[in-house]
Amino acid sequence: MNNGPEIHDENGIECMRASGKLAAQVLKFAGTLVKVMSCCYKSLTFSISKLSFPLDKPYSFYSF
Fold first, then answer.
1. In the record, what terms sit under GO molecular function (predicted)?
2. Which of 1-5, 8-12, 45-49 shows the lowest mean pLDDT across its residues?
3. Can you tell me the distance from the alpha carbon of 2 to that of 7, in angstroms, rounded to the nearest whole number?
4. What is the pLDDT of residues 18-29, one digit of tens each?
5. Terminal CA-to-CA distance of the chain, rounded, Å?
6. Would the pTM of this model clear 0.70, i.e. be above it?
7. Which stretch of DSSP H or E encloses residue 35?
8. How many CA atoms lie within 13 A of 29 on its CB side?
9. 61 in any annotated domain
10. How many domains does the chain have?
């Protein structure tokens, strides 16, 4: 793997543009599959890695 700068020809640039457009379409479609949660209550527990902590009050998740 080369850690230096990469120089792309016209074909490489066109491929990067196409992959960027595809990524945007995938993200847009994935957004249609997500259901927005309005609130979580203290009975739920979130796990982050190996750390778990209960919620002590409701939190809104409107600003994802």
1. aminopeptidase activity
2. 45-49
3. 12
4. 999 999 999 888
5. 35
6. no
7. none
8. 6
9. no
10. 1
